[in-house]
Here is the input.
Amino acid sequence: MHAGVTFNFKLKAPAAICLICWEEQGINALVEGAKRTPSSKNAPITLQLLSVLAAGTLPRPFMTFANADLQNLVLQLFRDTPNVRNFARQRLTEFMFSLPDDDEVSMAAGTVFQRLSFGDTRAAKDVFAALASRWLTFGKPRLQAIRN
Here is the structure.
């Protein structure tokens, strides 16, 4: 903490990037870590990273904290493993559903939209789709929740 402000994004971003290098196992670990340790940074980092993976775009803000070797590894992953995109999209939606309440969802999604607004609209669309899946889904569970 520095004057009440934490700069641990600089530590968390490279760790998150490293996890995705293990493809599906790493993505699962990223999501599980965010679920086990919910914080104001973990959920947005997870949403943002999953959304850029789903969109097939590079995680530019994350890359500024990665050394050249890690950047090259991530670039290779994006070129050689298109199946990661579908898996990331699925986990993005599942993670959005796992957030405990609408306030937490709004805060995390708002943070991610702000970060993605600097030029990654494809990834923002994936966040929006996951958000819409959570908030606009109608079925028996949702109707029961509304009645209660």
Remarks:
- The chain has a mean pLDDT of 83.
- The chain has one domain: 9-147.
- The radius of gyration is 15 Å.
- Residues 83-98 form the longest helix (16 residues).
